[in-house]
């Protein structure tokens, strides 16, 4: 389907990866242990049981600290992007990428988070990486914290529950801004900051078993979230000071919820879920907590400690743009207990009979992306950037080395159509980075067999393989989409 230009000139087409899922090299050149190095491959647990897949308890941490290999810890090896990044960037250049979203591993810069001086080998690695991107005319979009906070801060400071971690993160951020101010203009603070309740250990370093009951754990998570909000605002402040002309955004999961019916009770349930999803952008874009959340704190007698000046910091240092991930929509119903359930990304809801479902149980809803773009833009009037969207699938490597992934092409085509429709309706969208443009270790299940990329990496869930990179059928298709700025989706 060839259309006239429906995407703006200068649209940032590209892809996205994360240090904790791609780099590997978990214990070389001075890198410290992060929460990602604790994540285990769990073949005995259903891949759709995201609660158990994500969960990390005290015993898991101890076992991981005593394990000095990567046998059952796939994120420790990733796809060896640490050593192969030039080869991979050459493939991204071939695809025509205008941007690559990637992250810095905090523990490469400050191995434990508490050091007075940064690790020079870590700093140099990212300088070389960003320089290589620039040489290939690819704009880096850099996330400061993408599920890899220092494990030392979890064990000794209860993660982000401690106010001291704010200062540690801000110091880390300032070091990054100073070192890479000539190489990176676009930044994100925390990946999917709203994931604090889906997987608190991975997001804010909260080990729920340390707390006496559910309410105490919930209070700790909200306290950690507040500290991340403050740290994000301060990082925004220093980014603007250190790098003139830079732009820094928040990053949230967009979880669109529909009511099952026109029953007002269904509508109220869906409205509640959507309202709660907006909390995280409200604070970072509008600069203040929504009244309904403050009311929730009072009603439940939650003492969320906010220091003098915190509210002013949040109000003064708001983000320049909103970036978000979008994978699925959900359904709410007053009869949810009697309905068939589906889930994905640790979100469970009523099955939508109008939508197909991926191999991992995620409902595929391209029109929901259009609705999300319009809702977000109408609410905040800030530029939007889709920085994660894609489908995890089982890909088959044929004997001749080809990977025929027409299902991936169909998925992206339908989503690009809806992005274009939203743009035509007035939405200001800066760019699109697919998740993940090259196969990497899954965040939720620590699998390699859950593949998202246009580029196949020859490795299995246990790390066996050549790690050779192969172009899938979708590679040439996405290359054409970028070359035509989205006007040719055939």
TrEMBL record:
Family: Belongs to the glycosyl hydrolase 1 family.
Keyword Nucleus: no
Record's keyword terms, sorted: Glycosidase, Hydrolase
PANTHER family with a match to the protein in the record: 6-PHOSPHO-BETA-GLUCOSIDASE ASCB-RELATED (PTHR10353:SF122), GLYCOSYL HYDROLASE (PTHR10353)
Gene3D superfamilies found in the cross-reference section: Glycosidases
GO biological process, one term: carbohydrate catabolic process
Any one annotated GO CC term: cytosol
A molecular function GO annotation: beta-glucosidase activity
Family annotation (InterPro entries): GH, Glyco_hydro_1
Short name of any one Pfam family annotated for the protein: Glyco_hydro_1
Protein name: 6-phospho-beta-glucosidase
């Amino acid at each position: 389907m060839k259309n006239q230009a429906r995407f703006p000139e200068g649209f940032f087409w590209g892809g996205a990866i994360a240090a904790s899922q791609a780099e590997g090299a978990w214990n070389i050149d001075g890198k410290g242990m992060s929460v990602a190095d604790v994540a285990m491959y769990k073949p005995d647990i259903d891949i759709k049981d995201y609660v158990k897949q994500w969960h990390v308890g005290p015993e898991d941490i101890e076992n991981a600290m005593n394990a000095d290999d990567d046998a059952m810890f796939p994120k420790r090896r990733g796809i060896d992007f640490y050593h192969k990044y030039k080869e991979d960037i050459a493939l991204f250049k071939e695809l025509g990428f205008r941007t690559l979203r990637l992250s810095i591993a905090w523990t490469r810069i400050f191995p434990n988070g508490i050091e007075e001086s940064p690790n020079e080998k870590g700093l140099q690695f990212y300088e070389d990486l960003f320089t290589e991107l620039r040489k290939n005319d690819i704009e880096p979009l850099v996330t400061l914290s993408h599920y890899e906070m220092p494990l030392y801060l979890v064990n000794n400071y209860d993660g982000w529950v401690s106010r001291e971690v704010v200062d540690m993160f801000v110091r880390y951020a300032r070091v990054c801004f100073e070192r890479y101010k000539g190489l990176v203009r676009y930044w994100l603070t925390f990946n999917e900051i709203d994931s604090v309740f889906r997987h608190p250990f991975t997001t804010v370093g909260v080990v729920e078993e340390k707390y006496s009951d559910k309410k105490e754990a919930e209070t700790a998570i909200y306290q950690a979230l507040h500290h991340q909000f403050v740290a994000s605002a301060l990082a925004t402040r220093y980014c603007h000071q250190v790098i003139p002309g830079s732009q820094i955004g928040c990053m949230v999961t967009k979880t669109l919820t529909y009511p099952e019916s026109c029953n007002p009770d269904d509508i109220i349930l869906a409205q509640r879920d959507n309202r709660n999803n907006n909390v995280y952008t409200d604070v970072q874009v509008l600069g203040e907590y929504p009244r309904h959340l403050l009311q929730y704190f009072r009603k439940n007698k939650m003492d969320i400690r906010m220091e003098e000046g915190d509210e002013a910091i949040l109000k003064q240092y708001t983000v320049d743009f909103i970036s978000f991930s979008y994978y699925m929509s959900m359904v709410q119903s007053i009869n949810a207990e009697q309905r068939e359930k589906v889930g994905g990304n640790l979100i469970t809801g009523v099955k939508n009979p109008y939508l197909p479902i991926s191999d991992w149980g995620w409902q595929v809803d391209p029109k929901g992306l259009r609705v999300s773009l319009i809702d977000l833009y109408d609410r905040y009037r800030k530029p939007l950037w889709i920085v994660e969207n894609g489908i995890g699938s089982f890909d088959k490597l044929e004997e001749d080395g080809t990977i025929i992934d027409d299902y991936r092409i169909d998925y992206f085509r339908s989503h690009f159509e809806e992005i274009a429709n939203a743009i035509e309706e007035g939405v200001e969208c800066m760019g699109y980075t697919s998740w993940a443009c090259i196969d990497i270790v899954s965040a939720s299940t620590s699998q390699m067999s859950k593949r998202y990329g246009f580029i196949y990496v020859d490795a299995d869930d246990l790390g066996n393989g050549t790690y050779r990179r192969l172009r899938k059928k979708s590679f040439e298709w996405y290359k054409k989409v970028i070359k035509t700025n989205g006007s040719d989706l055939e």
